[in-house]
Amino acid sequence: MRTVKKPDFATGLKYLRLGLNLTQEEVASQVGVARQMLISWEAGQSFPTREHFELWKGILIKELERVQIRDEKATVGNRSYKVKRYARD
Question: What phi, psi does 88 have (nearest 5°)?
Answer without folding.
Answer: -90, 145
